[in-house]
Design a protein that fits this description.
The complex is a heterotrimer.
Chain A lengths: L2 H32 L6 H20 L3 H27 L7 H23 L13 E4 L2 E4 H23 L1 H11 L1 H6 L4 H27 L5 H16 L4 H21 L6 H13 L14
Helix pairs in contact in A: 1-5, 1-8, 1-9, 1-10, 2-3, 2-4, 2-8, 2-9, 3-8, 5-6, 6-8, 9-10, 9-11
Chain B lengths: L6 H15 L6 H26 L8 H17 L4 H23 L4 H21 L1 H4 L15 H22 L3 H11 L1 H6 L4 H27 L9 H14 L4 H21 L3 H15 L3 H13 L3
Helix pairs in contact in B: 1-7, 2-7, 2-8, 2-10, 2-11, 2-12, 3-4, 3-10, 4-5, 4-10, 7-10, 8-10, 11-12, 11-14, 12-13, 12-14
Chain C lengths: L2 H4 E12 L2 E12 L3 E5 L6 H9 L6 E8 L2 E4 L5 H6 L2 E3 L12 H12 L14 H13 L15 H13 L5 E5 L7 H18 L2 E5 L3 H7 L2 E6 L2 E6 L1 H15 L5
Parallel strand pairs in C: 3-8, 3-9, 6-7, 7-8
Antiparallel strand pairs in C: 1-2, 1-4, 4-5, 9-10
Helix pairs in contact in C: 4-5, 4-6
Classes of the chains: A mainly alpha, B mainly alpha, C alpha/beta.
């Protein structure tokens, strides 16, 4: 592979990894704190994609400020959707068996997929072009949009790091992920923080959808592929770990894109082989730790 | 050798008598649906041996359904083997998949077990998509021969096999082996201390459960005359879990009813509205709140109420 | 009586460290057939760790554990809990460790079927083995579990759970039972019942016991021998009356209550 192609593919992989990170950090966050594997996380990502598509293509027209507004709208809409889901649907299930939470989040996939179909129709909704100009690398092009996305993901990673280590809410959320009981005894309002965490996780999924839609096009069911790759990411990185989600995204992103060039038959398979190997030798994932059992 | 004939067996046999008669009054289309219902029921029963009885939540059971379906279809269509050899091929494939994935994933339990089984299932899905020459890739495999070729006749072939296997499951959970499953589910540490080989029990349950799914898949391929990779995708694994929970994971009857009901709800939702997924989703969500122990749980509650309990 | 016939279990100079904590410090004991040995001491004295060393759940850093089988002394140091169970050393747990989703009957059946190596059979109903059923009846009677026979583990009271926990071990025909606080959390009358139960098990099957216990009344009532532990070491190991005399000296020496 010549060096120019390599660079292009590297950016391709990093773009893909950035989207994965935005989705899986939220998924991991929610699991770490609430011990709920949110199967509907991919569906939230899909909603984010449709919101950005609507704001940019249907309303404001393609420009850098419309993209920013669209991202904010995606985060806001999906995060508030998350709050409703958590408060109304999940809260009554907290003391029930884990199966029921799983069942409910699976039902949400069906519901959200069809609501999206009702509003936007069943057809694929694609951006006419990738926003922004492109850089030339030899005979290849790298869209500046890729670089912007990578920067967004890095920014989010740093923000999350700051949030969890420096702010009181972040510290309280971490305390909950260690021990729910102790946190409650210490006077932490776990109830409120559950809502906050779910909203934060959902908002990240919304942003991921917004960032992804110019390339991946919006369609009902687009969440299905995304969620299962995110499972792989958080299992590789360690459930509940943001750093794990970051490294896991890189591993999945890079291995997929480069395997697709080297030996396409194993493009997807490699990801799951890596995941299985890691789980066998390090069940908590690369950066996971023994966490509290679910309540 | 004596088994106490209990309420569960009575209910199962009543249900099967009903299932033997009902096709006479149904259209071909509905008989076909009912056939799928029987197979879903069989899958749920098999899945529940692992989930409800042994306490392991697999998120990758679609791999066994597809091992059976693809094994048979590849044998019949791609390799032009006779039916017996094709069935043998499907069983060999299933056994290999079950032993390898079981051995590797059973080092863990709970969410990690679920994730590992999911990973293996997705791995198999990826291989099905990519190994075009053997599996037909995205398009799948068409023109799978069916015997007996009419749906009405094929229904009864399915019926007999499903009947035998469901009653067998009812039997197994009442044997020492089945008691061992339940002990491992409730308290693996104590079971180990009492001298039970927990890993072996789990592996037996996993493989057995896999064979149930595989046989369901093997019967499904000719019923449908064609198979596509959808049956290996994770959403199908999730559907297997969900059918079981809908019916009730406490016993064999519950899981079996879950499979039948799921097809019914699914079809009704599709017939009623263009937005069948929404309807299905809302029904599922309602079940979570109103019937947390499954449909069979409702029956039990009603019975207890009637008896004045 | 020759040594080998008289004794059933022996530990010599056991040591266990957890990091810097010397949890068990040079503990030796010999248990005779049908003897009830009680171990007392404050929390953290190393009582449960000692039971864990004897039953193989924790491996000792130094020292040996032996069981006597048909007159032979057999070294079981470092063997698996399962193997040690198989050699006739049963164990109950502080927090009752039973099968919640099975009825009391099925709990006991499981224990017997496993012990008799019938657990992998699938050609007969698990309730159809006549000799197993007889044994189940007997155990239910001995443990007075008749009233809760058909109830599920999760529906039992704390006292019933404790009894069932011991019954599961007893069903495997042990020579020795190691009981970790069998009366903790029980009401007064349940405690009396437990004492009576321990005595009757000894009577029926000549089982020997090592009992970790907090309740001194229970200890005086049942023990043939009494061991006092403190911070991993043995302060006294003698007949109960002797130890009680000594215990005043001990508490004076330590400046506080030991037991």
């Amino acid at each position: 592979m010549d060096i120019n192609l390599f660079i292009v593919q590297l950016f391709n992989a990093l773009f893909f990894a950035s989207i994965l990170f935005l989705i899986s950090s939220g998924l991991s966050l929610i699991y770490g704190i609430m011990k709920i594997l949110n199967l509907a996380h991919g569906a939230l990502y899909m909603v984010g994609a449709y919101i950005t598509f609507t704001v940019v293509i249907l309303w404001l027209g393609l420009s850098w400020y419309s993209m920013v507004i669209a991202y904010i709208a995606s985060i806001a809409v999906v995060a508030s959707l998350g709050i409703y889901i958590e408060r109304i649907l999940l809260k009554p299930l907290y003391n029930k068996p884990q199966d029921l939470q799983l069942l409910l989040t699976f039902a949400l996939i069906f519901i959200l997929d069809d609501i999206v179909k009702m509003i936007w129709g069943a057809q694929y909704r694609a951006f006419p072009t990738i926003p922004g100009w492109s850089l030339s690398v030899g005979e290849y092009q790298i869209p500046v949009y890729f670089i912007a996305t990578i920067l967004i993901a890095l920014g989010v990673a740093l923000l999350l790091h700051w949030f969890f280590t420096k702010t009181i809410y972040g510290k309280m959320i971490r305390a909950i992920s260690y021990s729910l009981e102790t946190s409650a005894i210490l006077g932490i309002n776990t109830d409120k923080l559950f809502a906050l965490s779910f909203a934060l996780g959902a908002g990240l999924a919304g942003l991921a959808g917004g960032v992804a839609v110019p390339l991946y096009t919006a369609s009902p069911g687009m969440g299905g592929d995304a969620i299962v790759l995110s499972f792989a990411v958080i299992v590789i990185g360690g459930m509940g770990s943001i750093l794990g989600a970051f490294v896991g995204s890189l591993i999945v992103g890079l291995s997929r894109v480069f395997m697709a060039i080297i030996y396409p038959v194993f493009e997807i398979a490699l990801i799951y082989i890596i995941m299985a190997i890691i789980l066998m030798f390090r069940p908590t994932g690369l950066f996971g730790r023994e966490m509290r059992e679910r309540r | 050798m004596m088994f106490k004939i209990d309420n569960e067996l009575y209910s199962l046999i009543t249900l099967f008598i009903f299932l033997a008669v009902i096709p006479q009054f149904l259209s071909i289309y509905n008989v076909r649906l009912l056939s799928v219902g029987l197979l879903y029921g069989l899958a749920a029963v098999g899945f529940n041996l692992l989930y409800g009885y042994t306490g392991l939540l697999s998120f990758g059971h679609a791999m066994f359904w597809s091992a059976g379906a693809y094994g048979l279809a590849i044998g019949l269509v791609k390799l032009n083997l006779d039916p017996l050899m094709s069935i043998l091929l499907a069983f060999t494939l299933t056994f290999t998949v079950a032993i390898v994935t079981g051995y590797l994933s059973l080092r863990h339990t709970e969410i990690y077990f679920a994730m590992l089984t999911l990973a293996f299932a997705q791995l198999i899905y990826a291989l099905i998509i990519k190994l075009r020459d053997i599996t037909g890739g995205d398009e799948g495999i068409y023109g799978i021969p069916r015997f007996p070729s009419d749906i009405g006749g094929y229904y009864y072939l399915i019926y007999i096999i499903v009947f035998i296997l469901v009653i067998l499951a009812w039997w197994i959970v009442r044997t020492p082996l089945g008691l061992g499953f339940q002990a491992v589910r409730d308290n693996p540490y104590r079971a180990e201390a009492l001298g039970l080989d927990v890993r072996r029990v789990r592996l037996i349950s996993f493989v057995l459960s896999g064979f149930y799914l595989s046989i369901a898949g093997m019967l499904y391929a000719p019923l449908n005359r064609a198979i596509t990779p959808d049956i290996a995708f994770w959403t199908f694994s999730a559907i297997i879990v969900i059918m079981t929970i809908i019916g009730g994971s406490k016993n064999v009857l519950g899981a079996f009813i879950g499979g039948l009901i799921f097809i019914y709800i699914n079809t009704q939702a599709m017939n009623l509205t263009e937005f069948w997924q929404l309807t299905l989703g809302i029904i599922l969500a309602l079940l979570v709140y109103l019937a947390p122990y499954g449909i069979v749980g409702i029956f039990e509650r009603v019975l207890r109420y009637v008896r004045g309990g | 009586m020759s040594e080998a016939v008289k004794y059933v279990l022996e530990a010599s100079e056991l040591h266990k460290w957890f990091g810097n904590v010397h949890a068990v410090n040079n503990v030796s004991l010999k248990l005779s057939r049908g003897e009830i040995l009680s171990i007392v001491g404050p929390n953290g004295a190393g009582k449960t760790t000692l039971l864990n060393l004897l039953s193989g759940i924790v491996k000792p850093d130094k020292g040996r554990v032996y069981v006597y089988l048909n007159g032979d002394r057999k070294d079981i140091t470092g063997r698996s809990p399962y193997y040690i169970t198989f050699l006739g050393v049963g164990r109950s747990f502080q927090i009752p460790n039973i099968f919640d989703g099975l009825t009391v009957r099925d709990n006991i059946r499981l224990s017997i079927l496993t012990y008799r190596r019938l657990i992998n059979r699938f050609n007969r109903a698990y309730s159809s083995f006549n000799d197993v059923e007889e044994e189940v009846e007997k155990i239910i009677e001995i443990f007075s579990l008749e009233d809760s026979e058909y109830r599920y583990g999760r529906e039992l009271s704390h006292g019933e759970r404790k009894k069932l926990d011991i019954a599961l071990s007893f069903a495997q025909q042990p020579n020795i039972l190691l009981l970790d606080e069998p009366t903790s959390g029980l009401t007064y009358s349940e405690k009396l019942e437990m004492v009576e139960l321990i005595r009757s098990l000894r009577r029926e099957r000549e089982v020997s016991f090592i009992v970790v216990e907090h309740d001194l009344d229970v200890v005086r009532e049942v023990s043939d021998m009494l061991m006092v532990m403190h911070e991993g070491s043995v302060l006294a190991y003698d007949e109960p009356d002797e130890v009680v005399k000594m215990s005043e000296v001990i508490s004076a020496y330590l400046g506080g209550e030991v037991i």
